[in-house]
Write a sequence for this structure.
């Protein structure tokens, strides 16, 4: 039920193609699931950077005339739901500035854990901030005049920021891709007719029929320009900490990330779930679409037939008028209607990717029971979520996470299901091919791979653990 | 691949509920798949009819303030893609007029085969027409002054029109539902907290949690007012001719129409297809979402595992900028991306509901082959479409229907698949519970259940068989 | 202060020019002051009529692509604030229908006094009405099947309707202009490069650089087609009753109507006013722009200098946010700010075209006093308005007309001015060149040139004299 | 004919009123003539600054909900057409940033002649720039960490910038107004119910019924906060150089600036023009509205009657479709139609405020001749414009200024008028009450009151004198 989470960010970059802006539009379109709040593209013709950004979906932000105006051979693009900063146009990315070396644009996916410390330090040295996003901190660092060469400034900047970050930069004649040493967030490299492509997920390469070359390595900087591509590795070797939740929910099933097919990982999660929590039943049904792959895996492993138990209404958009005087159940049915004919009198296993607050889940399960299901067995393809994420996912606070506040049996009772099973942490990690230690599981285990110092800690504790994850005001509070 | 067809019309009506307009909005929303072109609601407070219509999706046509303004206890609503008339606001329904008995509004699903004859006759008697839709013909007939009572006028009107029609009328204090004697198009009756509901499909009742009472019978008129509901049966008994294509494609899988669950009928179509056209393969994949149920049926019958072979991008909307300089393949990938990891090296059975022109199908199949599928076996859950429909479906002309112009083997070669199988007419009809003779199969068999006289025939032949199904101009041509 | 009145309608027509739609747009644009509520154009290419209408200003209703689509050599256009019917798109004109003779479109300026009688009669014979405008009544009459030839139907229709009407019709290959026998509303004929032009005012001819040929005569029908122009005169000779208020307020000062320059008539009104109500003062200032010409006339006649006492803010548009918490004075200043430097310590004569309710006038005069004027002498270039208009002007009811409810001295006190003078009826009529008897002065004198029968009278009395000029509901009430 | 110039900027500020944002909206509305390109307001509640900006007219940028959201007791606002930077949302003002002291917003009217020097210097020290406007330079200077107190930073910033500037700042609890030592641009102080108001012109005070207190003095800084108002005078005494063109064209006639009523100054310009260039004629007509006051002055001085020769169409907005296939004359008539009845056979004196390129003027004069004027005598109420402005007015380049490229006789021939007269420099200056030396007349005389150093000079020469006043690209060019 992770559609309760707001997605966070998608990145795209291309160098060496005459249709750079149009291809960025298509690339962003296939990364739309990573950020529905704003979208933007910056293009360069070798001399001048031109930007177009807006609030809303990629499709709504760009008109044909916008793309036609954006002439150039290299571009970066961004779709956003940011976990820092607020929902305003001024925080939309890419961010583009002029500085002593000319112009530069940046787009960022992830979350810097030392952003506030750096910001305070920069302000003390005279910097002014027009946005509340991490990208502006990065550009201020990059503009520091003490470096003779751009590359020095870049390396120093990248090594001063801490946390989860995949980044694309665009200069007048260079495209740069960066991934943090832990490799929290994905970033891949592709080739299209000789042009280099960077994208958060391989589904963006598929869209363009670009060839998938490889992932950008954790801690790697790739610099793409007239002379081709070269890499910097400014960090000491570190164990990766890929975000396992990308496989569980965020990434598109047709993408390959961290070396694994997302769809196949999810199918394996479903199979493992069937092994860990078997039950005698008539049907396995997914909560579409996030539970599709795991439900299929559960069905294949258990031999219990897969069935489409929910009809999903694709027409629900942003302006749908919620029936205010009606019950919550009512609202659930707007998006998903149970297929009564298939469910009546049946013992049903319902598979979803995760349970966050539990309320939406409860409502959907009730609609299945109302449709005549005799038994309901809830199966969840990730372990209980119990800890906040500081690396870029906007989980609710502890108070709101049902797994923090309820025991397993209490959750089962709350959801009013016959049985309830979450996959185990070990079981989840068995679904990926790579080393288990290479994944961040902090939201399940509380083991944060990247330590944050006492000051950051204080900020984080205040903001995240206190139950005030979302400050009401979108503006920065006054300083003393 | 019937998403190449424009859907045609959804009807809704309610009597006796204080939130009549809001419930109509929700009802129309769940009938959105039956017409994406325009939407409208007329509500009555017992004295005055108020209308709101617009071009576009239900969600776009109505703002909260529109619904708030529409006070009343009874309403009718309509979503439209009309097979007659053109795509303009003036043709949006419901149509509302003043006449000698007060005000009346009407919404219509289907196609009158004698509309032009009636229109010519009415014009000869002095009628003026502001739209090109059948509904205006119906209202002119209804306003004929020779009848003393409204019911006389209603019965006479309904018996003068010929063809496929499900109709809802709204008067100051009456809701009326009508279904043609052949029962071509569905129309069902529900109850919600004592209020009567009429809807094209039961999924609209589910949305409101209204109880499904029964279908309106072919040839039945139901009149719902202060004193409850009563029925008229003005027609002699006729054999029904339900549109089998409602089950194949139009209706939502979670609906029950003509006495059968759409999802279960489609699953049976898939099972029958597996029996008629078995093949050795590794996977069964649907073209989402229209092929989902049949593909599942094929998998269950054949024992070959079901798989999600396509990832569907739900963000493609009306304003998406098509990449003009790119190939047709490219455009296909925008909506459906094959999941390469699942398909590579596999022998794949692809199931879809129908093949109309064949071009979209070909492109999608190519993307599966490009994703690495070793063999492709195309299976279609309806027989080849070879004849135009005069009862409300906007099929292309014979020239454009691939099954009219190509042999089975030629189609297979065109699609570049290893094998190709359509379900048989008999096989298709075996999937429904009712009498086979109660279904119209004209588009497959050429057997038109309702004869149309020589004049209508001439018009139809000119318009439909000549290959000019869609006159370029949206306006009525000049009369001699 | 007649800007309190909603303007009513502007007509345009053209035959024989390849840019018919674009020229109609420009023509309507220069007739915008006659109707700001909706605008529309119908064009013909000789075969097909195409329509585009919308709510709002001409400039807002038409996009370049709309005009480009409207190919044809003849067209009619309309700007509207109707005095009958309500403010809805379905009531926007031109109205276009199909009938036994093909297609026809109509646009109408004026008010039929027997519209309701005709409507009831037509409904009794089976007609249905989709709008509440007089034009639909006209088209129903025109479609009567008893006439062999169109011209017969036209003449019969025109002679059956009573009241004030200037009308343009468009058929597949004919443009028709009609003016009622009294000639209440203006309609003129022009020539542009061999194409005939019809327009409510000559300013529309000026805009196109068309040559002014003559006014359409009262009671004349002109039929313009391939063979040129010809006239019908179906009415017996009648004395004209031109609306004097067109000169006072409605028409644009750069137009020539009823044989007189509007600007020069207004200047003469100002001169006459100076003769009738002289006063010793320092300055004459107009209420811009409706009082400009008369104020200039007053200044010229009296020798007292003309001055710009108000600065008019041209930016006030439809979406300006009124300062709700502020006083009424405040709102007045948004549009007109007094030029204090010119007014301070001065004895000021303020000239306006008319006083309707008196409230806006009072507020504006107060702002002049606040700006430092020592004395204020109000002069009005038409007599007190005391009777409703049934020929097309939407005056308030008697209750709201300050001249109906107050004596001259009471009005002076209400306005808080030192002296107040209205021009006399005789004086007003002395400003036009034609015979005084040829003008309708009903709103001042109560002498209605066109008798309306007892039934109409009843309706009118109920609606107009009862103080319910504007029924709250926009919809037609239920019939018994 | 100065409506060929884009206006430049209007400033507003208020402190101590509960409706600060709404009053700013109204204030900006009355300053709309100073900038139609973008509008913005920043409000403070003592803790948090909130901003709303947008492209377009004040009325279009703000919806009621925007103003309701902007709670606070102090605010600044801005309307813009900037002479630096380009026409993009990111350059709209006020500009708001966070820095070491909290938050601050700024809005600016004028042009800094050392902006590029300062920008280069700041970039060399590591600053990044997100806009191309002078205001961002000002904020970077203000954020310099070397100052202990805000006031020190403020004074140092203001003394480092050179050129023409009126500025308003908003801090969490302070409103600040600044005017450059030369007093190029106006800025006045008012009082409304105890709240302080700052505005570019007194017409904004009139709108609010605020009392005009005084002008901010050249070189004065006023700081308004909880403890009231206090002034700083950080500059050595300088001779003022008020922009005379504010009186000629920019300011609203109902404003008082630089100690004079704009309307009365313009009237005096007209009187002086009549003395310098008398001619025997029948009528004096203005080009509305910019020539109104001067034409009246000419009429009063000469005794030749004033007349409204042009009818102005107020409906011409931003989306009006220009008739592309028609002549330039055609386009002129859309906005101004000559009143033929008043002009026919007359010898006409036409008065306008200035001639810039001469082309629009020529077209308008032609329309008067076509309307039948026998003689045309053009009179201009400012001297020939021959030099660029570096203090905030966006004149065309020398190449485009007709007075630079043509002799007086050549201009007369170009305009096809019988006589032509410009007011003399001396004559123009005689219309203001203050010392003549206190006005900047650089655009007429070439005498620039504020020297700009060699570097600035070089930039200016390149940009302004080369004929490339408006670089095609809106973006900052690449640095070497």
């Amino acid at each position: 039920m992770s559609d309760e989470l707001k997605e966070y960010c998608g990145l795209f970059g291309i160098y060496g193609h005459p249709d750079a802006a149009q291809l960025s539009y298509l690339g962003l379109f296939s990364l739309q699931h990573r950020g529905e709040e704003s979208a933007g593209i910056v293009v360069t013709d070798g001399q001048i950077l031109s930007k177009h950004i807006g609030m809303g979906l990629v499709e709504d932000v760009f008109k044909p005339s916008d793309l036609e105006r954006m002439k150039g051979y290299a571009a970066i693009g961004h779709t956003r739901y940011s976990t820092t900063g607020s929902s305003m146009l001024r925080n939309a990315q890419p961010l583009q500035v002029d500085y002593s070396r000319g112009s530069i644009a940046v787009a960022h996916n992830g979350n810097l854990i030392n952003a506030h410390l750096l910001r305070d330090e920069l302000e003390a040295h005279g910097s002014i901030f027009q946005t509340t996003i991490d990208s502006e901190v990065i550009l201020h660092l990059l503009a520091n005049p003490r470096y003779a060469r751009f590359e020095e400034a870049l390396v120093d900047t990248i090594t001063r920021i801490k946390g989860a970050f995949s980044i694309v930069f665009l200069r007048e004649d260079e495209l740069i891709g960066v991934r943090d040493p832990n490799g929290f967030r994905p970033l891949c490299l592709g080739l299209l007719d000789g042009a280099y492509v960077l994208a958060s997920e391989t589904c963006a390469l598929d869209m363009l029929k670009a060839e998938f070359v490889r992932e950008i390595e954790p801690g790697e900087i790739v610099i793409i320009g007239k002379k081709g591509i070269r890499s910097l590795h400014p960090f000491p070797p570190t164990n990766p900490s890929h975000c396992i939740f990308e496989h569980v929910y965020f990434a598109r099933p047709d993408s390959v990330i961290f070396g694994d097919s997302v769809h196949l990982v999810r199918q394996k999660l479903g199979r493992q779930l069937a092994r860990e929590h078997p039950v005698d039943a008539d049907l396995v049904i997914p909560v579409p679409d996030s539970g599709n792959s795991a439900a299929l895996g559960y069905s294949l492993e258990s031999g219990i037939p897969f069935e489409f138990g929910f009809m999903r209404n694709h027409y629900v958009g942003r302006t749908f008028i919620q029936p205010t005087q009606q019950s919550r159940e009512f609202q659930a049915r707007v998006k998903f209607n149970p297929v009564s004919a298939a469910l009546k009198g049946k013992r049903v296993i319902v598979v979803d990717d995760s349970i966050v607050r539990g309320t939406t889940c409860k409502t959907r399960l009730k609609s299945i029971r109302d449709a005549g299901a005799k038994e309901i067995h809830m199966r969840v393809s990730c372990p209980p979520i119990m800890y906040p994420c500081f690396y870029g996912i906007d989980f609710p606070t502890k108070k709101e996470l049902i797994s923090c506040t309820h025991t397993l049996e209490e959750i089962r009772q709350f959801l009013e299901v016959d049985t309830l099973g979450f996959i185990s942490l070990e079981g989840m990690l068995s679904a990926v091919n790579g080393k288990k230690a290479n994944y961040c599981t902090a939201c399940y285990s509380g083991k944060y791979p990247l330590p944050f110092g006492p000051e950051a800690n204080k900020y984080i504790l205040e903001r995240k653990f206190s139950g005030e994850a979302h400050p009401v005001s979108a503006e920065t509070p006054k300083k003393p």
Observations:
- Chain D has 18 helices and 23 strands.
- Residues 463-480 of chain D have pLDDT under 50 and may be disordered.
